[in-house]
Design goal:
This protein has a single domain, classed as q2cbj1_9rhob like domain (Jelly Rolls, Sandwich). The protein contains six helices and 13 strands. Strands 1, 2, 3, 4, 5, 6, 7, 8, 9, 10, 11, 12 and 13 form a 13-stranded antiparallel β-sheet that branches. Helix 1 runs parallel beside helix 4 and helix 1 packs parallel to helix 5. It is α+β, with helices and mostly antiparallel strands. A hairpin with a 3-residue loop joins strand 2 and strand 3.
């Protein structure tokens, strides 16, 4: 199947559940708006996506104080079907429908997959609480939506690797959204949208197709530019101190160099 055909399936499924998804989103809109839908694609198609995922050895390893994960974004280096899947979510019909569900206007996809693409997490992988970078790669548009499509068969809640949304701040209990097979999660991104991924505690690899949408205007009128900003959990006092320091240093660099000292390599260079 090509991206247009896959996009049609995504569109039809979202559209047939539009009112339910919109009601789900509106319940959380005032904090971190989100919705999720299970069985997004036919099961055999979702299984085929997983089967064609690269291995962690073929992906880019990111391991530091902030995170431990693997990413793949130079899509012509992997099975061509995966590029079709990625760009199905960038189809204008899908973008328009998702933006309507989330009551947003002027929403755009990202052909460069800046910070998007494929994500893999194996045992001991994690992602500390963080705010996504506020802008696209050229700092022309605001990042407003994060789309996460999970494709690992039989992935269970107790495996870890689940999305955590901190709707009431980092000192309050988080909302956990299971990284269930064939589930799409859509969440807003702004200066209060703290989220994380719990540590993977079982053997296996949790696979996710990741996309971002952007807009000419931010979700919150109070939003300001920020780099990807990490924090420690409430039990990680020392780690939190160093992550705060790291945030300040990287923010100061970006205040001088608009695109950083070097171009962020996490983008699809065609």
């Amino acid at each position: 199947m090509n991206r247009t055909e896959i996009a049609q399936i995504i569109f039809d499924n979202l559209n047939s559940n539009k009112e339910v998804l919109k009601a789900q989103f509106l319940k959380s809109k005032e904090t971190i708006g989100y919705f999720f839908i299970d069985n997004l694609l036919p099961e055999d198609l979702a299984l085929d996506i997983h089967k064609k995922f690269p291995t962690t050895k073929e992906a880019v390893k990111k391991k530091n104080l902030r995170e431990f994960k693997f990413t793949a974004y130079q899509m012509d280096s992997y099975h061509p079907f995966l590029e079709e899947v990625i760009y199905a979510f960038q189809d204008k019909r899908v973008i328009q429908l998702v933006s309507e569900i989330c009551e947003l206007e002027e929403v755009y996809g990202d052909e460069y997959l800046y910070a998007g693409g494929l994500s893999l997490m194996k045992k001991d992988s994690y992602l500390n609480p963080h705010l996504d970078n506020s802008h696209d790669k050229d700092r022309n548009r605001w990042r407003v939506l994060n789309l996460l499509y999970y494709v690992t068969p039989n992935w269970k809640l107790e495996n870890g690797g689940n999305l955590e949304i901190w709707q009431k701040g980092l000192q309050q209990k988080q909302t956990t959204l299971e990284s269930r097979f064939n589930r799409l999660v859509v969440m807003t991104t702004h200066q209060n949208s703290w989220h994380s991924v719990s540590k993977v505690v079982k053997e296996g690899v949790r696979c996710c197709v990741s996309n971002y949408y952007f807009s000419s205007t931010p979700i919150l009128t109070s939003d300001t530019f920020h780099v990807t900003t990490f924090r420690g959990r409430s039990t990680e006092k020392v780690k939190d101190f160093f992550l705060r320091l790291d945030n300040v240093l990287r923010s100061n660099i970006r205040s001088v160099f608009k695109k950083g000292v070097r171009e962020n390599p996490h983008q699809y260079k065609k």
